[in-house]
Amino acid sequence: MKVGTFDTRSGAIARALATPKGVIAGGWLFLVVFVAIFAPYLTPYDYDIQNLPNAFAPPSAAHWLGTDEFGRDLLTRIMYGARTSLSVSSVAIGISVFCGMCLGAAAGFFGGWFDRAVTVAVDLTWSFPEILVALILVAIMGPGVTGTMIAIGVAYLAQFTRLTRAQIMAIKSETFVEASRSLGAGHGYILFRHLLPNALTPVIVAAMLATGDAIILEATLGFFGLGAQPPTPSWGALMSSGTAQLFKAPWIIILPGVAVAVTVFAINLFGDALVRALDVRAGLREA
Amino acid sequence: MNRSIRGCLLATGVSLAAMVSMAPSVFAQEAVIVLASNEVGQPMYNPIKGTLLNTANSMIYDRLVAQDAERGYHPHLAESWEEAEDGMAWTFKLKQGVTFHNGEPFNAQTIVDWIPLFEGSENAYLVAAIEKVEKLDEHTVRFVMKHPDPNMLYNLASAFMGVPEPKAFVALGDDFGVTEAVGTGPYRMESFDIGLETVLVRNEDYTWGTPLAENTGPAKFERLTFREIAEDSTAYLELRTGGVDVLLSVPSDFLPEVKQEDDLKLLTIQGRELTYMVMNVTKEPFTDINVRQAAALAINQQEILDNIYNGVGLAADTFLISALPEAKIADEHRISYDPDKANALLEEAGWKMGPDGVRMKDGKPLEVALWTQSDSTFRRLTEVVQAQLKAVGISGQISTFDSAMIRDQYKSGEQQMAVRSYIWDNADIVDWFFGADRLGYPNISMFVDPKAEELRAAAMTGSKSSAERVANFTAYHEYVLSQFPVSPIYQPVIGLGYNTTRVSLPDSINAPDINSTVLIDMAPAE
Fold first, then answer.
1. Which CATH code is given to the segment(s) B273-491?
2. β-strands B30-34, B246-247: how paired?
3. B382 in contact with A at a CB cutoff of 8 Å?
4. Are B387 and A50 an interchain contact pair (Cβ–Cβ within 8 Å)?
5. Which residues pair with B524 in a beta bridge?
6. Is A279 at the interface with chain B, CB within 8 A?
């Protein structure tokens, strides 16, 4: 039997959280998600109300991380920025996973000209760095959160299409699939009941790791002013505004940068723990 | 063996010592200059066709007339001039011994061939008053006028009337100013990478610099590299870390820091720049003059001056820089912060305050697209403007565009509102930005108004004397402001910052802006 049924996957998260790496990374990620969701209840400040005379105030009891160039509380902006960064990266990777799995599964299962066409398209996309694909798409669609989500989603589409296609091609000739087919199961039943559930585990792990990359990509686009538009905060945009104040108020660029770095590190660490817990490599060997 | 090793070491040491002692003079033959961020993206060094010309342009092309800091006129390629009493003719005596970079002589025939080249170009208005050019002798020409033009000397002193070599201009066509640029200036164009940098090499024959400069030529640096850096903070970091030698316009944020640094020096002059917010009068909700006026009155210029620009510069309340006589308009036409009136106007226009602080009318929120350039100073200013608009219930959705691309975006006419700036010190900038024949860009507001066109015609072509021109332009300026297509924001000073270990400059600047009059005096630091 393959690894990665729903039961083993839910157990894997518990196993991942039982490791020191998993608990540290999971703890940080839980904190970030909690802060992102409950930001309005955790801070007394509005993220968008300017107080210009209080600009560039250093960290103090009133403003733990200081204020930005418009006198806004930087901690509040970072908390709301987590909301932007996590939602954009999660939705973007969701788009990649959903579309990539559909395309990859269809290509791997049906083969023929469709498979060749998808493979060529994916290889073509794969030959460009994600940042370049995303920049081109944002330039076409215009800056903003929606454009960024779609751009990042498309940028990572090739990765999930390839992964799913490879999984499906490996599994579709297994005896349990043959057995199901000989019992009269149709394409749809085999694909959705047997193949996709068994292909899901590596995709989950890849999605976890890609989310970290997507956070960096979102921050990069935000840094160039192409992500969330002011006054909506995002970690990249916060860093970008901090570059102009590097000497006057270095905390404006450093602290959002730390938030990005620690969160991406935590995602990678947790992804690593998850890989071990799921024993994905063993599963892939079996496949 | 030992002797030969010692010999080698000694020779190496002597060579290194020689190289070290020579290094400053060798390296000092080249200076790297960063253009102002609002000069980024110039597509060509073509004074006839170009609508954006950067400072390097003045190093390639000389003008007939030069201006000093007080805006007085002085000879340059023209040694002297005389205006007929009725204003219907101007006679210019040209400097002798001047040659173009390609060896062609500069003489009366040059002027005869040059002026007609403006026909059909964006800059044709500069010579629109000239009926024809007559060659009186080898170095004397007369402009026969269609009507008097009190602005003639100003036009001749503008960057757009730098004199290109007419034969090369015709021969190269659209490539002129891109692959090759031929003028009489103190530098020749060696290379030009659009949006990146321009490399100029010294014109060794140059001896005809303006008397306003200490040095009349040749220039003291062999090569000048003009770099285009759109991001102000990056430009400043380059100056501070020694990557470049001169910033032509130090961003206001960094003025105090340049003053504090031991090896950096700051020269300031009254600026020619004006920052403003413009509204597209053909796009809802700005088709309603009440909404335009409300948005204009929502801008708190003093708050912006104090908090964004550290109090350096002036809060603007007219569309012209304050040094111009046409900026002295009646108080009722000045546009200054008045939030109460802004709110009242929006109420009157039917926009009622919604629960989230954004006004609503017929179920639609008062949301507008607010365009700006991507460099940090503009982004920062626009965020403050956005907050000030929000304070009266207008929600501005900021969209940032690359500095080099935004002019093309304006040409689409899709803009609703934008924060931008211009650099000019003549009242005809009102014609440039609000003339009905330049919709999209430069008429970003898409302002077309019959009365404005009448006043514009009177100002541009109906003035017989300087005093009449001032009066006509003042009336035109007042009328445009009364229609609120624009809200003035800020008038900065120009701060030229340079590295004193690499470059030396005179302590004062006798020019209305940074141009060849200033930069020809730039020398390697001793």
1. 3.10.105.10
2. parallel
3. yes
4. yes
5. B503
6. no
Amino acid occupying residue B424: W
Q: Are B160 and B68 in contact (CB under 8 A)?
A: no
Chain A residues whose beta carbon lies within 8 Å of the beta carbon of residue B377: 244
Report the gap between the CA of A58 and the closest CA in chain B (Å): 16
CB B377 within 8 A of CB B253: yes
Cis peptide bond prior to B442, omega within 30° of 0: yes
Q: Six-digit token pair at A195? A: 């193949």
d(CA A285, CA A13): 21
B33-269+494-524 placed in CATH 3.40.50.12160: no
Which of A72, A229, A240 to mutate: most B Cβ within 10 Å? Answer: A229
- CA B407/CA A195 separation, integer angstroms: 53
Choose, out of A46, A47, A70, A72, the residue to mutate when testing the contact with B (most B CBs < 10 Å): A70
- What does the pLDDT look like over A206-215, one tens digit per residue? 998 899 999 9
Shortest CA gap A53–chain B (Å): 7
More confident call, A179 vs B370: B370
Bridge partners of residue B135, in order along the sequence: B141
Mention every residue, 6+ apart, whose C-beta is less than 8 A from residue A194: A171, A176, A177, A180, A185
- Where chain B has pLDDT below 50, the residues are 1-3, 14-27
B398, B401, B402, B414: which to substitute to probe chain A, counting the most A Cβ within 10 Å?
Answer: B398
Position B227, amino acid = R
User: Quick one: which H or E segment has residue B22?
Assistant: helix B2-27
Give the span between the Cα atoms of B46 and B161, in whole angstroms.
10
CA contacts within 13 A on the Cβ side of B490? 29
In chain B, what are the domain boundaries? 3-27, 33-269+494-524, 273-491
Please answer whether residues B326 and B320 qualify as being in contact, where contact means their C-beta atoms are separated by less than 8 angstroms.
yes
Facing A230 at nearest CB: one of B237, B253, B386: B386
Indicate the angle between helix axes A235-243 and A74-110, nearest 10 degrees: 130
Contacts of B237 in chain A (CB under 8 A): 246
Q: Is A240 on the interface with B (CB under 8 A)?
A: yes
Token pair listed for B249: 């316009």
ipTM for the predicted complex: 0.76
- Length of chain A (residues): 287
Least reliable range by pLDDT among A41-45, A69-73, B47-51, B309-313: B309-313
Q: Nearest by CB to B253, from A226, A229, A244: name it.
A: A244
| Largest separation between any pair of C-alpha atoms in chain A | 76
Q: Is the pLDDT of residue A244 over 90?
A: no
Q: Hey, what domains does chain A have and what are their CATH numbers? A: 6-35+66-286 (1.10.3720.10)
**CB-based contact, B399 to chain A, within 8 Å:** yes
What is the pLDDT, as a whole number, of residue B27?
A: 45
What sign results for the dihedral spanned by CA atoms B159, B161, B163, B167? positive
Question: Two tokens at A60?
Answer: 């103090």
Which residues of chain A make contact with B379, given a CB cutoff of 8 A? 225, 230, 241
**Quick check: B233 and A243 CB within 8 A?**
yes
Is A238 within 8 Å of A254 (Cβ atoms)? Answer: no
Give the pLDDT band of residue A9 (cuts 50, 70, 90). low
The confidence score (pLDDT) of residue A12 equals 76
- Give the pLDDT score at A10: 64
Does pLDDT of A284 surpass 60? Answer: no
